[in-house]
Design goal:
The protein has eleven helices and no strands. The protein is mainly α.
């Protein structure tokens, strides 16, 4: 594929509902109690600063200042920890290794689609895969996360493919999705949240141990009088944020 064609495809892909689902899901993972505890533990275990490395100049992998950057054994163990997180949350390692390393090393919460990105679907050249098989880890994740395949004739048009999916989805594809679906994976369950509202809610969550009257005052000072909220609503927000962070 030419570079221009690839960039055009990627620009279209990031606007799809599937990619948006993945972005929302990763955001919730980052904010969950389990993942935050995991980050604290892995940073301490592998000699990464408690707040990660400074990414102001450049994000290099592995970071130049990381004490274990040249330790092959420790880097392998580190990657194995990331693979476990990928399995827990149902994210392919071709996506997850980059996404979670970015956060652990640099607190990076945004991620871009790259050449290896899978998201919710995957396109496979099956004869080529048989001839030049992927690594064991990649094949394992392919089978785990993409257990259903639609083989497409090279003679099929876009209309033929779409007609086939629309005709068979309720009778064949949906049935197989239910067969393999892991209900513990909550990808697709989270909506995009308004940034300004979430910043306010995060602030309230981080200060939940303060008296509610004090939180009300701090919220007004930080976010302006138009974002003032009453005593009872603060308690509701704290409850919602605590619950949300325990879901993953």
């Amino acid at each position: 594929m030419e570079k221009e064609d690839f960039e055009l495809m990627m620009n279209k892909y990031i606007k799809t509902s599937g990619h948006k689902k993945l972005k929302n899901y990763v955001r919730e993972i980052f904010e969950s109690n389990y993942f935050q505890d995991f980050v604290k533990t892995i940073r301490k275990k592998y000699k990464i600063p408690p707040n990660g490395f400074d990414s102001e100049n450049d994000q290099v992998f592995p970071p130049k200042l990381w004490k274990l950057s040249n330790n092959t054994k420790q880097r392998t163990l580190f990657n194995n920890e990331i693979k476990k997180i990928c399995k827990r949350y149902g994210i392919h390692i071709l996506d997850g290794l980059g996404i979670f390393e970015d956060y652990i090393f640099y607190n990076e919460t945004d991620f871009a689609v790259d050449f290896d990105s899978h998201g919710l679907c995957i396109t496979s050249d099956i004869p080529e895969e048989k001839e030049e098989p992927w690594s064991k880890d990649v094949r394992e994740f392919n089978d785990l996360l993409y257990p259903i395949a639609i083989r497409i004739s090279p003679n099929a048009s876009l209309r033929d493919i779409l007609d086939y999916i629309k005709t068979t989805y309720n009778y064949q594809i949906s049935y197989l999705q239910k067969k393999y679906k892991n209900n513990n994976i909550k990808l697709g369950k989270f909506r995009k949240r308004k940034v300004s509202i979430q910043k306010r809610n995060d602030f309230i969550y981080q200060n939940q141990n303060l008296p509610k009257q004090e939180i009300m005052r701090l919220v007004t000072n930080k976010f302006g009088s138009e974002n003032s909220i009453d005593y009872g609503y603060i308690g509701k927000i704290i409850s919602q944020e605590n619950k949300r962070r325990k879901e993953l």
